[in-house]
Amino acid sequence: MITVGKVIELFCIADDFRQEYSSEVQKHQLEIKDGKKRRNRLCQLSDSEIVAILVCFHFGTFHNFKHY
């Protein structure tokens, strides 16, 4: 059984990793110079929330995500 404290700890670890990873990706990306506007819309859930949900699902006893 995963406790609420473990879920919060898992989310914090995933969020710290995401922040470090996205800053490293930004350093190595090429710039697009075609004059078009690019949209950078945010999702409803953050990447850290999605990772925390998936890890909790895999540690659970559910056989599919529909019943989770």
Instruction: Identify the overall geometry.
Output: elongated
Overall mean pLDDT stands at 84
Order of helices and strands: HH
Structural class of the helix and strand makeup?
mainly alpha
- Portion of residues in beta strands equals under 5%
Q: What characterizes the major β-sheet? A: none
> CA-to-CA gap between the ends?
14 Å
Low-confidence stretches: none
In total, how many beta strands? 0
What's the number of helices? 2
Report helical residue fraction.
Answer: 55-70%
What's the Cα radius of gyration? 16 Å
List the helices and strands and how they pair.
Layout: H1 4-28, H2 47-59
Summed up:
The chain has helices at residues 4-28, 47-59. With 68 residues, it is mainly α. It is elongated and about 50 Å long.
Q: What would you note in describing this structure?
A:
The protein is mostly helical. It is 56% helix and 0% strand. The chain is built from 2 helices and no strands. The longest helix has 25 residues, at 4-28. The radius of gyration is 16 Å and the shape is elongated. The relative contact order is 0.16.
What structural keywords apply?
68 residues, elongated, 2 helices, mainly alpha
